[in-house]
Specification:
1014 residues, Rossmann fold, 7-stranded mixed β-sheet, 7-stranded parallel β-sheet, elongated, methyltransferase, transferase, restriction system, EC 2.1.1.72
Length: 1014
């Protein structure tokens, strides 16, 4: 037996109090804290039977009093341990027998079973279920009603003490007395020739005449084996002083040849008296009643499996493997308790049938197969190798949180409710002492120190003397220009601060030396912080035209990964160059390689705004491969282009959704769809928790700081303020170092100029036509998708695109009938004013470029003209152009802005003309900063040409509104008036804007001034 029954009986007056204390100790998990053992629980809890607290005098008759008692007690009288031992001992169970108690109470029968893991039970009372689950954690106990209990296996024995004289309604049998239903349920769950042993009232099936119907029901299902009368005071410990009960034994019917069924007999084998000997009476019952039925049951189990195996079309190899595995399971002491379940699973395989309501396809997926049987048996046998459970509890770290774990059933019972509550690691770092987490003190001190260091705003940090000394001595030899490269004081200061943290974003304006900073950071990490290598990820043009050229020029050891085999060439101390396209292509292999290096690398993501779109493959690939590496540096001229939400993927790469990126925003914001200018706020469910990964995190970041993107139309209608700006400021202060070009190089040489031009009558006519008669022009410039609804939705967008094209080069439209457009002639005149200057012109579309090329060749035929597009001029030719252009002294570089986005520098060009606007200033600055570098000396003039009163006014206003957000991300909270001044906007732009409005029919229109144009 598992627990010893104490002879001392609990007074009736104390039973309720003790029951409540037991349940409190179990629910709170404090049994071990107050030195209460499982055996104490076994002896203290007595259930609800006999403690109803009702008074007979309060009821009109005994029937009403009895029914009230039944409702409270629910027939719950736990079987005294002596009777449980008698019944179990008489059955002489083996370790492999499957045994069920269908109303198990607190599980008294389980105390005497040879194998707890082979015990199955069902209990409807939650209090009794908790106690049973506490006492017998390895048993298979379900909380529920016996009427709905459906275990997946069949049992060798069902034993129990069912509730007496309760009336139950069942779907199958209608209303039935509880003890009879127990027998019917047992017949469903027993194997053929399985044995039912139970305690019932002596009045059950006592009168052949009055109980004739119930006797016939039992005889349809069972063969009667015998019965034994129990003492009248058997349940006296529960307050029932005299209630005649008996033991009954039945065997489930079988169709096997030669087996005979015995009818019911009211006579009893014997009558037990108080103080009976369990051992003697159990032996007597076994020999007189159970010996031969048990032999039939054991022979039947083996015979049924053999017969089924013969009749089943299974392979001979399968039969051999099954027999071998079952034999090893049966004889091995560590797993022999699994033998019965394995036999039952094999029996299910032989007897399974396709349910009528299941399709053939579903049946093929769910049915048991030979492979599943062998796998099941092999898993059972492998349990012989499991380590022995230790009776200890220990604090473990799993899934990003600390939690106490019990390594044995008794250890798990000792866990208190507070111990079972997990503590996230970030919470332990933020608000707990390391001593609260024994065994993890060193880890928590390290994490707290790192959190404190990473949380320092850069403006409050001081330089590290050791790093400063190394940076002062850091030099590179430029073999192309034959000169020594040094860091200036500002660069050394910022790099010093970056090297004191594991993660940082260096937001230096284009031309400030970010490549040089990346080389210095990588070299220091590898030489002084024992990092294996430095991995540089960027766009193809940046890697090929900049890093590949610069590292070779400086004589630095590096590996350019262009094929998978190149990964094998990486050695400690190398720079590793990878384009974003290659990261996407080699995502799995790179993740394995970085993991093989134990994440001990320095990541440099150059032009980090390339991963601003979280849905892009390149963004997902970079996050997948490098989010866990030891040190990360992101470099970019501008971390955002269009909206603040673009910063979220870069933040996720830097901090990996850890304690360093906790959402401290108390409220989230979104636009009210019913009120155009209204903002709704709601509580932040992630407040005080790390921002989650991927889409949830991006949505949370957006709702925290900027509910909606800036658009061409409607800028004036929606408030684009930055929400929770103080929280975002704190995050930027510890993450980003921002420098303008002037701050890094120590001189202000960049000047921006606005050049508004006016439409000629012919240009205005074609613009007006595009406004009023767009439907007629549409088919000349846009192809129909074949879907009317889709075409209708695209109409307004296409109209905007066409209006922008007219603003860039009206002569590219067939409806234009004039001479060279005013804007193009203005550019030509500006070129003519600077005959001795090298001038760059950047447009966005090839058709516009061709229009400017024709005009320049016509009006300035003697001026050298170089035309560059991304599709026609290779990277190598663009690099070679640097020297040619410089030697020409007064040539014109006409190119698309995207053909020179990064890495190809013309620091000697002083005049830049941009006649076609991008959708954000960052996109244009990527272009014009190719001509403004840290080694430039002359003033740089950048000219933006726009048609006043055209949609380009809207486009410029959108650029300026976005720049307000971008400047905030760079630590500058300025208003639009300040931005107008920076961009030299000195006219009333708002008066020239066009608006999008919706009419009463829900159709959109473009309004320009006082005129409404469909």
């Amino acid at each position: 037996m598992k627990y010893i029954d104490q002879t001392e009986r609990i007074p009736q007056s104390r039973r309720k109090e003790l029951n409540e204390k037991v349940l409190y100790l179990i629910d709170s998990g404090t049994t071990s804290a107050v030195s209460i053992t499982s055996e104490d629980i076994f002896n203290a809890y007595t259930g609800d039977g006999g403690i109803h607290g009702l008074n007979r005098d309060d009821y009109e008759n005994y029937h009403e009093y009895s029914e009230a008692k039944k409702e409270i007690e629910n027939g719950q009288f736990f079987t005294p341990p002596a009777l449980c031992e008698l019944l179990v001992s008489s059955l002489k169970l083996s370790a492999s027998d499957l045994v069920a108690d269908l109303t198990c109470g607190k599980g008294n029968f389980f105390n005497f079973l040879p194998t707890e893991a082979n015990a199955y039970g069902c209990e409807i009372d939650i209090k009794a279920y908790k106690v049973a689950h506490f006492l017998y954690p390895e048993a298979n106990i379900e909380y529920g009603d016996i009427r709905t209990y459906q275990p997946e296996i069949r049992f060798d024995y069902v034993l129990g003490n069912p509730p007496f004289h309760l009336k139950w309604w069942t779907k199958t049998h209608g209303e039935m007395v509880s003890q009879l239903f127990y027998c019917m349920k047992a017949s469903e769950l027993l194997k053929p020739l399985g044995i039912l042993a139970l305690i019932v009232p002596q009045s059950f099936l006592a009168d052949p005449f009055m109980d004739g119907n119930q006797i016939r029901q039992m005889e349809k299902q069972f063969s009667f084996l015998g019965q034994v009368l129990l003492p009248d005071r058997a349940f006296s410990s529960l307050g029932v002083q005299s209630f005649p009960t008996k033991l009954q034994f039945w065997q489930k019917r079988s169709s096997l040849e030669g087996w005979k069924c015995r009818p019911y007999d009211t006579n009893a084998l014997c009558s037990l008296s108080d103080g009976f000997s369990v051992t003697q009476e159990a032996d007597k019952i076994y020999h007189e009643i159970l010996r031969f039925p048990k032999a039939n049951l054991e022979q039947n189990s083996s015979r049924i499996l053999l017969e089924l195996a013969k009749n089943h079309p299974a392979s001979s190899e399968f039969q051999y493997q099954v027999q071998k595995l079952l034999y090893h399971i049966k004889v091995h002491p560590a797993v022999k308790d699994q033998y019965a379940k394995c036999c039952e699973y094999l029996h299910s395989f032989y007897t399974q049938k396709q349910p009528e309501d299941m399709s053939y396809e579903q049946w093929c997926l769910s049915k048991i197969t030979e492979a599943k049987v062998l796998s099941y048996l092999e898993r059972a046998l492998k349990k012989q190798n499991q380590k022995q459970e230790r009776d200890v509890t220990a604090l473990v770290k799993q899934g990003g949180q600390f939690v106490y774990k019990g390594y044995s059933p008794s250890a798990r019972r000792r866990l208190t409710i507070s111990m079972q509550q997990p503590t996230p690691v970030y919470q332990a770092v933020l608000s707990r002492q390391p001593e609260d987490f024994p065994g993890f003190e060193r880890l928590l001190r390290k994490k707290q120190a790192e959190y404190k260091n990473q949380s320092q705003p850069f403006r409050e940090m001081t330089e590290d003397p050791q790093i400063a000394q190394w940076l002062s001595a850091f030099t590179l030899w430029d073999s192309e220009n034959e000169e020594e490269i040094h860091l200036n004081q500002t660069q050394k200061h910022d790099i010093n601060l970056v090297l004191q943290k594991r993660s940082a974003l260096l937001q230096w304006e284009q031309g400030s030396g970010k490549t040089l900073a990346g080389i210095a950071v990588g070299a220091y990490r590898m030489n002084h912080q024992n990092l294996h290598s430095t991995w540089v990820i960027s766009s193809a043009i940046s890697i090929r035209n900049n890093w590949d050229v610069v590292l070779k020029n400086y004589g630095i050891s590096y590996v350019f990964v262009e094929r998978l085999k190149d990964l094998e060439r990486i050695r400690p101390g190398d720079f590793v160059l990878l384009t974003l396209n290659k990261v996407s292509s080699y995502r799995k292999q790179l993740a394995r390689q970085v993991k093989r290096l134990k994440q001990n690398i320095q990541l440099i993501l150059d032009e980090s705004d390339e991963i601003s779109n979280p849905a892009s493959l390149r963004c997902k690939a970079v996050l997948s491969c490098f989010r866990r590496c030891r040190a990360k540096l992101l470099t970019t001229g501008t971390s955002t282009r269009n909206n603040i939400s673009e910063f979220a993927p870069q933040l996720e790469l830097l901090y990996n959704n850890s304690i360093h990126m906790i959402s401290w925003n108390p409220f989230l914001y979104k636009h009210d769809s019913e009120a155009a200018d209204s903002i709704k706020s709601e509580q932040n469910p992630y407040y005080g928790k790390p921002i989650p990964a991927y889409k949830k995190g991006y949505s949370l970041f957006s709702a925290s700081h900027l509910p909606e993107r800036v658009t061409v139309f409607g800028i004036h209608q929606r408030n684009q303020d930055i929400y929770n700006a103080d929280v975002l400021n704190d995050l930027l202060a510890k993450t980003v170092i921002t420098r303008t070009f002037e701050e890094v190089v120590g001189k202000k040489i960049k000047r921006l100029h606005q050049v508004p031009v006016t439409f000629s009558p012919q240009e205005k006519a074609v613009y007006q036509t595009a406004m009023e008669q767009f439907q007629e022009m549409r088919e000349n410039y846009f192809t129909s998708s074949g879907n009317y609804r889709k075409d209708s939705m695209m109409k307004l967008i296409q109209q905007i695109v066409l209006l922008l094209r007219i603003g860039a080069a009206p002569d590219t439209l067939m409806e234009y009938s004039g001479d060279t457009p005013v804007k193009i002639m203005t550019v030509v005149e500006m070129l003519a004013e600077w005959p001795e200057e090298i001038i760059a012109i950047g447009v966005r579309h090839k058709a516009v470029l061709e229009s400017y090329e024709r005009a320049i060749r016509e009006y300035l035929p003697d001026r050298p003209l170089f035309v560059v597009t991304g599709s026609e001029v290779s990277f190598a030719k663009r690099r070679a152009l640097r020297k040619t252009l410089r030697e020409s002294k007064n040539s014109i570089l006409l190119c698309t802005q995207q053909s020179l986005p990064s890495s190809v520098n013309f620091e000697y060009v002083n005049k830049v003309i941009i006649p076609e606007l991008h959708y954000n200033h960052s996109g244009m600055s990527q272009f014009y900063m190719r001509f403004i570098r840290y080694n430039s000396t002359d003033y740089k003039d950048v000219y933006f040409l726009t048609y006043a009163g055209s949609i380009e006014s809207n486009q410029m206003q959108m650029i300026l509104a976005k720049e307000k957000l971008n400047l905030f991300m760079k630590g500058l909270d300025v208003n639009l008036d300040d931005i107008y001044e920076r961009f030299d906007v000195d006219y009333d732009l708002l008066s020239l804007l066009m608006y999008r409005e919706k009419d009463a029919k829900g159709k959109f229109h473009i309004r320009w001034g006082e005129q409404t144009i469909t």
